Amino acid sequence: MKIILALLAVAVVIGLLSLRGLHRRIEHLAENPSAEEQARREVLAPKVSTPTDVMIRARIFWADGPDKLAPMDVELALSADPLKRARQVIDALITNPPDPAQRTLPADTELVGFYLLPDGTAVADFSDSLASETPSGILSEKLAVDSIVQTLKSNLSMARRLKILIHGQEVETLAGHVDLTGFFELNAAPQLAPPAAAAEAPANVPSRAPTAPQAPAPGGPRR
Amino acid sequence: MLIPVSLATIAAGGGAPGRSGMPHAASASQQQPEQATATSKQQAPTKPPTGDESLPLSRPPAPQENLSPTPPSPQEPAHSGPTIVLDPAHGGTDTGARGENGVLEKDIVLAYARMAKSDLERQGYRVVMTRNDDSDPSYDDRAAVANAYRDAIFISFHVSSTGKIGTARVYSYQFASQPESDATGDARRPAPTGLIPWQEAQRPHVDVSRRFADLVQTQLAERFTASPSMSLQYAVRELRSVASPAVAIEISSVAAGDMNSLLAMGSQVSGAIVHSAVVFRATGNGSGQP
């Protein structure tokens, strides 16, 4: 009888310890809800690296308070290929905010495709989560779009304007407010990409023609 | 969303800002503008405004108050000045921002619009609402309500899920510097027929919209002191197809507290709108030339 009681007591202690560990894990996830998405992202969307990567001071735009952006210079290994470079800086924007409060894009957002047309039009195709998980509101959507636009503008001199797609489709708004049917201006006098580079599609994205530039659009905000 | 060809153009009118760009069917639509909201974003039939007062309101309108978007009857006093089109964003299954305590943006903005309607009508304005119930008109249906009037001012209400609590921002639409070129390289300009694309309807009005937005922002900054002093220009979809001065007001945020706390902010918003409308009218649409 004493042995059974002792075994039960041990089982209870082990159970309590397990519950405590589980509780800590839940608390950790609650404090940092993006941790799981980021872990998944590291598996599904490994960092882009190319033989031409060199450490460069890149300028990334994260949130600075609840209603504005601020540029931050960070050392990144960036490719000479503008398409790869665009993916690298957008990846940094998504995955490396200095503080979770400075995040402008949902943690599990992925840039699934990036194209640069000969006329300097850049087309960025994001995963659904950019639209479905960006908080609703003009301000939050403006910060999300501006962080993408300003980051690309600062690190991709050959891009003249940007079209944002969601999962390969032109959408009317990001999350109900900001108009995505037009273009966002990047560089007024872009250094156009060489034709070979401009025609190249990202290696991990199926080759397909971007739809947006063919569709008439009213234009986007000027900055 | 693609705009049907039949809706893709409106007449490019001349005259003073805010009184141009009238749709072809302006006179007919003015008789029954509520028909313009007959479809929703989901293409489901929209219930006609019923004046349903199930939502909490700090100042419930009197039972005899006309809450439908129908123009005033001959018995009502003639309105003066522009027709104010109030647009509570979202509605129906589109709840907008959602607060932790369960408050929904679609309910708050409807209450704000009703408060502003009551205050504006006391000043003699004709006021029309794009929705007065839990329906969800499409962006173009909302714009069509404003485009049915020669002298409309379109005001869209929003409450954000982010931003410093107790601040307000006013937006007017910003297009690219020039209309996009079509496939032949010709910039899209008003056709010889005087028609402009429906999706470009706001373009002739961006300056006057910005002036009105600045007026409202100045008033809101006095009431919500941490707010920006000047309005912002951005591509807010709801404003793009409105052929008259159009602004969007966004209050931060649904995290401000319970419904009563948020409704208290609505009185300030309404006061700012009324003051701005009076100044706008007195100064000739903000041009300084009454």
Tell me about this structure.
The complex is a heterodimer of chains A (223) and B (290). Chain A has 223 residues and is an alpha+beta fold. Chain A has one domain. The termini of chain A are far apart. Chain A is elongated. Chain A has helices at residues 2-31, 35-44, 82-95, 128-133, 138-155, 195-199, and strands at residues 54-63, 69-78, 111-116, 121-126, 161-166, 184-185. Chain B has 290 residues and is of the alpha/beta class. Chain B has one domain: Zn-dependent exopeptidases (Aminopeptidase, 3-Layer(aba) Sandwich). Helix content of chain B is 26%, strand content 13%. Chain B has helices at residues 26-31, 105-122, 139-147, 206-223, 259-282, and strands spanning 9-11, 83-88, 126-129, 152-159, 167-172, 195-197, 232-233, 246-252. In chain B, the strands form two sheets. A six-stranded mixed beta sheet of chain B has the order 3-2-4-8-5-7, sandwiched between helices. In chain B, helix 2 (105-122) links the parallel strand 2 and strand 3. In chain B, helix 2 (105-122) packs across helix 5 (259-282) and helix 4 crosses helix 5. Chain B is globular, with a radius of gyration of 18 Å. Chain B starts with 8 loop residues before the first strand and ends in an 8-residue tail after the last helix. Chain A binds chain B through residues 65-67, 135-140, 142-143, 161, 172-173, 176-179, 181-183, 185, 216-222, and chain B through 1, 89-90, 94, 96-98, 105, 139, 158-164, 167, 169, 171, 174-180, 182, 188, 197, 199-200, 203, 232-238, 240, 248, 250, 252-253.
